[in-house]
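Issue 218. Parser rejects a valid record. Input:
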Amino acid sequence: MNHQKRYLAICAIAVIFLFTVASVGPTSYSKAVNIYEKIRVLNQIISIVNENYVEPVNWDEALDGAFLGMLDELDPHSSYISRDKLETVNEQFHGKFEGIGIEFDLLGGYITVIAPVVDSPSDRAGLQPGDKIVSIDGEDAYEITREEVYNTLRGPKGTAVLLTIRRPSQEETFHVEIIRDQIPIYSLISSFMIDDRTGYMRLTRFASSTSQEVSEAVESLRAEGMTRLIFDLRTNSGGYLEQAVNVADLFITSPDTLVYTAGRKAEMSEVYIASPKRGYGDFAVIVLINRWSASASEIVAGAVQDLDRGLVMGETSFGKGLVQRQWPLKDGSALRVTIARYYTPSGRLIQRPYDNGTRDYYEDLGKEDREELLDSLRMDKPKYKTKSGREVHGGGGISPDVYVPLSKYTATTTRLVGHPNRPTFNWGTDYAKGRKADWKDLIEFNRDFQITAELTENFLTYAKNQKVDFDRKELDKDISYLRSVLKAEVAGAIWGKSAYYQMFVSEDPQVTAALSHFDDAAKFLVHH
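Output the parser choked on:
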């Protein structure tokens, strides 16, 4: 009986599809006939599978897979978002959720605090990097799953949760009650002065609060004496179109086109113009991008490049130039469908080709010789002119004005630093215990503290004890990088995430290259 009811419900879905198709206009009639035929086939497939498959079918999963497969045939970025994933997806765009506010990982079977969110309930309660949550509201938290972490630590604003904490520097566990609150998901994860005139900002996404975060950071850096800025959009996967426009607008001082979209429907085609009174035109700008900089970050980089506001450096960007709109569905899931394409001010299409399918589309990004392949094809790609007449190329993605490759490390180093047991984090957290008073501030720490050969050996012994394998000869090739990671982990444990990133700047070859090109970037100021 249950199988029959489920089958009837599935058939009803197909019938609804048929009635939906029947409502299309005359101009779509020929296509609608084809859809009728395909839905009849779908109905037949469902019937045969439901009655004959060797095991009972989970139709939720099967049909979700069918939806994903259908959309995958359109383009790599149209997607179906199931009900259980929609809340998490929306949080990333809205830039907030309700909970206690920690970045965590599951280490040794326990929830381990990587960092409390600044000014969150966890931060105010005094949670520290390395703290382990051993119970939640009296329930043992050993071997808890990530899904269970979200379900137990998140909750409505104003509600309480009782945590039992084991801190590395203390023998006894202790309890702390935390009142949940609204937690911001910051887009700008780091902002500081590299030297007395160079500001640095690292942006990881474009959410609803991004342009405000960037504007406030620019004002703060200018107050500290900034006359030139490195704007780091590496591995920024994008977000809201409107926020990309607002961020680009902060750097443009003339009423130029920042980006425009073109869709099949007239209402999907828009031109976004800069508001001159908003823009800052008194400092040089270098934008850093890499192969994982996509969508909204490419809009900003493209506007800066095409309007000659600054230099773009790094690698050729991802090449995602498709605009999606999200529609809610009746079961609580959502449909995200491509409605238009992005174009830079000079007319370049940001989207790269995806004719060979989604798998090849993403695998292309992982090729070590990707930049060489792109460079060999560049002369055959369409040419465009920036505002001042410089030649730039289309064909997908934003090609940097100055190519600077990412550093390549041995497989041993990559595995060690990225090991799921987080040996560098754990060592840094342990080393930092009780040492904050050793330095007046981060500046003094950076100047006076070094990871010596003795400390390096101490860490490697620690890693071995954690059963993390490595090839010492291979690791020695990257010893300077490893020491910078360890120093950053100590800084992060004491002063937070921004300090962690600040320690990497002096060892980052792309940032170092940017510092040597500000004379070129400053030449663009005459246009603004």
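Fixed in the parser; the record now loads. The first helix runs from residue 2 to 22.
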